[in-house]
Amino acid sequence: MSFYFRLQFRLLNRHIQDFGLSPLWGWLLGATGFFLFSWLLFSKTSFALYLYLLLAASWLLQLSNRKRADFLKVIFPAYTLRSIRMTENLIVVAPFVLFLLYRQYFLAALLLLPASLVLSFFHYSAVIRSAIPTPFGKKPFEFVTGFRQSLLFFLAAYLLAGIGIFVDNFHLCLFACGVNFLLILSFYTRPEPLFYLWSFAFTPAGFLKEKIKTALLHTTFLTFIPLAALLIAYPGKWWLIAGIQLLGYLYIIQVILVKYTAYPGEIPVIQTLIFLGSIFFPPLLLGLIPFFYSRSVNRLATYLT
Amino acid sequence: MISIDSLSKSFGSHQVLNNISICFQKGRVYGIVGENGAGKTTLFNCIAGIEDHQGRITADRAPLKNHLGFLQTEPYFFSKITGEEYLRLLCHARHKPAERAAQKNIFELPLKQYAATYSTGMKKKLALMAILMQENDYFILDEPFNGVDIQSNLLITAIIHKLRELGKTILISSHIFSTLHETCDEIHLLQNGVFSKAVARADFDLLEREMKQVSIGNKIEQMELK
């Protein structure tokens, strides 16, 4: 069993190294990032506890994937397998439990531990044969796959926007819009296999234009309902709502360009930090978008003609 | 026609392809054979432009990559993409309509299902269908018969014959000699980074016997199976 966990640790370190960081820095930044994220979540929203528990559950569910469980079942005896699954679930919830204790949510923290152990007994099949219908089927693939993978999160964000309007909390509505855009940004964070890019008979500029056009069109479709609801509920703040929407579009353009500057590799840490910098200081976008555009055109020229 | 001139490729100090020059003509089917690791897939990746390389690869329709259908050994599918969406994506990538996918579904694949849930053979057939719908002039089929049922095997063989009739240039790699025997006009043996032998259809039997001799030899005795 200890070999299994040492191996998992080594695999995680390799992922960190692929990201362009030394493992030590990766763990430090990861821990700091997790703490900051948790702290921000609990300081900014009253629904933090529910979102936090949902997040912990989604991490646990990733380990309960049937394919993974079947693989472990084949290679380990039943008793070892049980110990492994329980231990890894405890490791995953440990940071959540620690933060909940720090915030004095003792009951939630104490419930999370046995819940994680119970969840280790279940596994779910990620293979659902009937496809979830999407309105994006005509232009695959990012929105088709991303929407299906994040459907529940979109529904939660829509619900949050609805609750915000209902309780007249404008900031909660904006937070929900932000969540929508973050989910869409996540569609573009991983590079697709080279074959998919190679297949395109486009110039690099044409390819990027097509990607951006599709992304903006589909984003408008995905964000239209909360956007319209907000404009109806808060007509006096239309400029702020429109501004957030516009910024969202710009960040989506930027993430597409950033992705292809490093293609076929993962987005390196420097570009990630620059991207984060532009979230805190949006005027940077005016310079960054043309910069990343020229970099990604150069990068794509290797694969597209 | 695809023309390869002085193609070399190495990974670090390991030379995989060594100064290969060859010309693949229109309306002909070429079998590329060699042991695992002989460089077949690397050769295909170089032709497709996926791998950097030394030497020149040209085609009568340029750029080659925009007219090339590449069936990879293990086609990759996104986890939440349906068969139909995959076909649409690949057709869109080449500015080709994908509207009659259901009609062209000769392998009777469940196109509304997620492609990732398909069996190995079904994945292969979906990927093949996509490159056929792209109406390419050149085809690289890396192990097209791998994991495919016997009925589809026959259908793929017939498709290759039809593509030849249509004047396409086709390169096939396969570890099943009989399939090459049925489909190819020439077989080229890739060994140590070079084409060590080119055999015309009339001499396929001879090549098979030679390969058996070299590949099997006394290796079974060497295993000391009990």
From TrEMBL, chain A:
The chain crosses the membrane at residues 21-41, 47-65, 86-105, 152-185, 215-234, 240-261, 273-293. Keywords: Membrane, Transmembrane, Transmembrane helix. It comes from the Bacteria. This is Uncharacterized protein.
Automatic annotation (TrEMBL), chain B:
PROSITE patterns: ABC_TRANSPORTER_2 (PS50893). GO terms for molecular function: ATP binding; ATP hydrolysis activity. The keyword Ribosomal protein does not apply. Pfam families: ABC_tran. Keywords: ATP-binding, Nucleotide-binding, Transport. Residues 2-217 form the ABC transporter domain. The keyword Transport applies. InterPro entries: AAA+_ATPase, ABC_transporter-like_ATP-bd, ABC_Transporter_VariousFunc, P-loop_NTPase. Gene3D superfamilies: P-loop containing nucleotide triphosphate hydrolases. SMART domains: AAA (SM00382). CDD domains: ABC_DR_subfamily_A. This is ABC-2 type transport system ATP-binding protein. It comes from Niabella drilacis (strain DSM 25811 / CCM 8410 / CCUG 62505 / LMG 26954 / E90).
